[in-house]
């Protein structure tokens, strides 16, 4: 696909692309990265240099010249990536739907459904009425009883299908103010904030004392429901701030494509620095001082 695109936009065969930056999940694995670079050079002879980089690297390169910062992801899954100014990186979460993904769309769906099972089994009684969620589950998954969920969660498991139920939970919270829906999103907000506080002991003083405080780039569809996450999220941050480590924090939302970050990394491999206007690549949707 890349070779075909190159042939279409570069009509003269003697003209080559100096470098290509690629935003690809898994690029932090050095062996896989080198294999991809080798393959690309073999298949795409119009490109002189290929630089695969992670989604985190690309996103953070859009808001900081150094590429340092914190990225909080909550889409189908969840993860928090930290890259300090010295290049040292640390991850919290991102271990998949069985071992992690707290606060993600999948987790929100799973949590809401699990509460139904626990309540009806008498294992853990819900303090909120389960009627709305129970009906929403049956309609969304096109089932008549909860036993049918066995296929959906096991033999015919589709993580994106399950994660998609998060939209129905959000509707219940925003449109009818259902208590259980509101509770699950509040819990999701708390878990997402805990991803940040888990990273704080490793964050450099330079990042903590920057203008606007610690800058956290937030990406993923779950943040479209920020109003539902907000209270639980802030409660956790305020509780942690009492320990004195966190003085100020800003949550950022990207307003441009991460392709800009990929292009930045690609250019840097051939000693070119792109003239990026960083403040035009994001908006601040929360700033808090403690």
From TrEMBL:
Does the record bear Transferase in its keywords?
Answer: yes
Give the protein family.
Belongs to the eukaryotic-type N-acetylglucosamine kinase family.
Among InterPro entries, the record links this protein to: ATPase_BadF (IPR002731), ATPase_NBD (IPR043129), NAGK-like (IPR039758)
Q: Does the keyword Transferase apply?
A: yes
EC number per UniProt: 2.7.1.59
Superkingdom of the source species:
Eukaryota
* Domain ATPase BadF/BadG/BcrA/BcrD type residue range list: 8-238
- Alphabetized GO MF terms: N-acetylglucosamine kinase activity
A Pfam family matched in the record: BcrAD_BadFG
List UniProt keywords, sorted A-Z. Answer: Transferase
Question: What organism is this sequence from?
Answer: Acanthosepion pharaonis (Pharaoh cuttlefish)
What is this protein identified as? Answer: N-acetyl-D-glucosamine kinase
